[in-house]
Structure formats: C-alpha cells, structure tokens
Amino acid sequence: MGVSLIQEPVSLIVLKKAVTGGYLYSLKITTMKTFLSCGLLALIIACGMSACSKKNDNPASKAITAQDLQSYYIVNLYTDQGKQRLSVIYFPKDTGAIKAWLDMNGVRRAYPVALKGDQFTFDGDANGVLVYTFTLKRDSAGNVAIASADIKHTGYPDTKMNASQIIKVSAAPVLTGKIFSYTIPGSDDDTYIHFDAGSTLRFDDYNGIVGPYSYYSIGNGIGWKCEDPASGGSTMGVVGLSSNGNTPMMLIQTTVPMLDPSRIHTAELN
Questions:
Q1: How many CB atoms lie within 10 A of CB 17?
Q2: How far is 164 from 213, CA to CA, in rounded Å?
Q3: Distance between CA atoms of 188 and 214, rounded to whole angstroms?
Q4: Which one of 124, 133, 239, 256 is most buried, counting C-beta atoms within 10 A?
Q5: Cβ atoms within 10 A of the Cβ of 130, count?
C-alpha cells in the first residue's frame, strides 16, 4: 500500500521524459529512491528507538549500582569447618565512599563495595582466604534479588553456602517493645527475647531470666549484638523474613551456655 502511493503511472513518467529530455524523469526516479530509502531508514530508527525505550522502561533491565545496595542487606547461613555460621552484609549510608559491612558474632569488617556488573564479592579478611560471591539480578518490579550465592574458604573445601536472603532495610521492624521466641531442641519450653526501652534486652525461659543486657544495633536496626559479662559469651541476632517473604523472624547465634550455642536459632515474632 505504501509503495503504490509513491509510484506514478508509467505513461506519466514517459510523458515527462518526452517533454524534458529525460532530466525530470531521472530526477523523479532519484527522488523516489531517496524517498523510499529515507522512509525505510526512518522506520528502522523509529523501531530501534521504540525497542530501546521499551528496554529502558523495563525495571528488570536496569543496571545494579552500589547506591542501590544501600537499601538492602544480605543474611547468610553457611557451614565452615563443620560448624553453622551466621553473617550479615549491609551497606550503611554515610557521607563517604559506599562500603560493605560484614557482621558475625564477635566479628566486624568493612571494605569498599566490590561490584562488577551483576557480581558482588566480599573478601572477609581482604586476603582472598574467605570470599563471598553473589550474582545479583532484578525481579520484574526492579527490586534487587540474588540469582546465586557462594562462599569459598581456602583450605576448607567443605565450606558451603546453605542459604542467602537479600532484604530491604525498610522491612526490618523497630525492635523496641517487640518479643521474639524460639524453642531449644529437647526442651518443651520456649525462650523469649524481650526488647525493652533504652537498648536493653532480656532472655526469659524455664531457667529464669538471663540479662538484662545492653545491646547495640547492626546497621540501621537490621540486627543487634550483646555480651554476657558473667560467661564471657556474646550473642548476635539478625532480622530475616519468613519463607512467605512477609513476616519478620530473627536468626540468633550465641556463645552463652544457657542460650544453647550448639546451633543457630530461628525466633518468631510474637
């Protein structure tokens, strides 16, 4: 349809040739070719721009930056040297260069964010011995998600990542006034963790009350740490999300004997 609108009847073109000695005929053919070429080029450009626009409008195609990571934290459960480990990596907002912070029970590290394309790495001691590697992606809504997670510990081939969860900082609840509980295996009673005013907490179980302890927050309230002067032990808790992705829960690792240091506990919000 488009070509028939551009072409002229042959008799009309021949008439022009007879009158002008071929000049107008030649000009007309050139004009038609140019018009067709320009139209085709414009169509290609328009389609290309439309495709680019659609790609740019797709939240899942947007590159992930260090600034994006500041809205998230990563909770990790892994096995190292035959023991269960809990760690959290977060990206607090400050006035300097963006850094990735790692907290474990009794450990804290901070280094500049190592993000290349969609791969984020964290070198635990900046010596290549214990290295976390995450391949990131965006979901259909544009939120940052984890495509794969791995951990390597030189000299310990059995070290493996069991689970990783990336969570928005805004999903972590304000702890003051909250109560979480977990059950120690072999016991019929729950252990309750009360977060009281003034950054204090206490553990309440069948043995009585342990604490109160002063605690300090990890990141922007995504977790906490405290020490037990009596035993010399320490405890760390990190807010996670239940399997449905909506309900806050807490992962706890401790070296306090009365709180069962043999495993990582999962506490539910009461």
A1: 15
A2: 29
A3: 28
A4: 239
A5: 19
Q: Say how far apart CA 250 and CA 265 lie, in whole Å.
A: 8
CA distance 136 to 6: 52
Report pLDDT digits (tens) over 23-74: 333 334 444 454 445 555 555 555 555 555 455 578 788 999 999 999 999 9
Give me the pLDDT at residue 37, please.
55
Q: Between the CA of residue 237 and those of 68, 138, 229, 248, 253, what are the distances in Å?
A: 24, 27, 18, 12, 7
Q: Is 69 helix (H, G, I), strand (E, B) or coil?
A: helix
Q: What is the pLDDT of residue 255?
A: 94
Ramachandran sector of residue 126 (left: φ over 0; alpha: ψ -120 to 50; beta: rest):
left
Q: What is the pTM of this model?
A: 0.78
| All domains in the chain, ordered by first residue | 2-57 (no CATH), 66-167 (2.40.128), 179-269 (no CATH)
177: nearest Cα among 270, 268, 240, 245:
270
User: What's the rounded Cα separation, in Å, for the pair 125 and 115?
Assistant: 17
